[in-house]
Every structure is written in C-alpha cells, then in structure tokens.
Amino acid sequence: MGLNLVQEQGRIGSAEWAAAGRALPGENVSGDHFVALDTGDGSALFGAIDGLGHGDAAFDAAHRAAAVLSENPAEPLDVLILLCHRALANTRGAAVTLVSFSPSSISWIGIGNVRASLVAVAPGGPMVRATALNFGGIVGYSLPSVFEAQTIPVRTGDLLVIATDGLGTDESASVNLSSQTREIAEDLVATRSKSTDDSLVLVVRHRGTPQ
Questions:
Q1: Would you give per-residue pLDDT tens digits along the chain (211 residues)?
Q2: The domain containing residue 79 runs over which residues?
C-alpha cells in the first residue's frame, strides 16, 4: 500500500466487503495487509495481518502470511495460524486475525492486536454485539500453547469490522450502518488512522443469502 488511502471491494456469497488502508506517512509501503477469499459453498475467509513495525520488513511479513492464506483458504482457522507461523519464522512476525464467514455464522481467531467486532443495528444506534478474543503472541515468533476459534451466529445486516492497531480503538461503535461498506472503510481510515503507524480496516456486511 502506498502513501495515499487505497481501497478494494467485492462480494463473496452473502458477504459484501470493502477494505481501506494507508501506509505510515513517509513510507512507500504498508505492513498491514488483508485477505478476502472464497472458500466455496457461499463462505469466505477474511483476515487482516499487521507486520510488526512498518516499512519493507513489515510489508514482507504481511505478504508472506497473505500468500499462505491464499493458498490454503479452506483450512481450519487454527491450522491457518500454524501455517502462517511457520512461513513467518525468518521475518519480523505479525499479528493476525482471521474470520471464517458463512451465511449463518462466523468463526474467528486472533493472535496479537488486530481487532475484530460484529456490529448490529440497535434502537440507540450501532451496537457491538460480539468481539473476537485475541490471544497473546506473535505469529512467526511465539504462539500460545492453546488457542482456538470461537463461533457466533450472524444475521442479515450485521457488520464485521476488522482493524489493525493503526486505527483508534472505538471504530466499531462509531460506524454509520446506513453507509456502504466502501464508504465505512474509507471514512474509518481517513478519520481514525494514527500518525505513527500503518492502518487498515476490512468491513464485511451480511447481505443475506444470494437468490
């Protein structure tokens, strides 16, 4: 990712997604990267990777992890973490959060400080319905002895927000659920990015099962 805000979007099954991010000011590449992968049967694998630090070394770590995920999208989440851990052994390492998204549920797992929240419509405004439990460690250096994915139900209209720590911590509760996923992602990066780090957000909306 370059100096300016960059954005991608798409749809996989019931999931409409958009990602936006930018590099630390002064850097030509970002150490934050994402994946949005079709795993078949209307399901998808979404994830965000934050290579430690910034610059070329962080970029390399994040892209190695993304390559592993792209080659093995249908593997269980804990297996994917282990595969990334092996691939990043000679890099700076990374924080990684992965989400398996199906029309009826999501499963998620995180190592490090990439956050994931599920935001729902509520009478008083957006409500964070669930937050992924992140385990301590650095993918590529040290993993906890026990880590496992959690599964929760998902409903049409729910919004999944995955963000690296280059964004402020209250991003999920401040989203405008009436906006398009692209607009939400771009706005979060434009208004919540810290000046001291790369930033990335991946926003996924459950649009209901395609007819």
A1: 333 455 689 999 999 999 999 999 888 899 999 999 999 988 999 999 999 998 999 999 999 999 999 999 999 999 999 999 999 999 999 999 999 999 999 999 999 999 999 998 877 778 899 999 999 999 999 999 999 999 999 999 999 999 999 998 776 667 888 899 999 999 999 888 999 999 999 999 999 865 5
A2: 6-206
In a domain, 188, yes or no: yes
pTM tops 0.70: yes
CATH number for the domain spanning 154: value is 3.60.40.10
- The answer to whether residue 191 sits within a structural domain is yes
Residue 83 lies in a domain: yes
Q: What values do phi and psi take at 196, rounded to 5? A: -110, 5
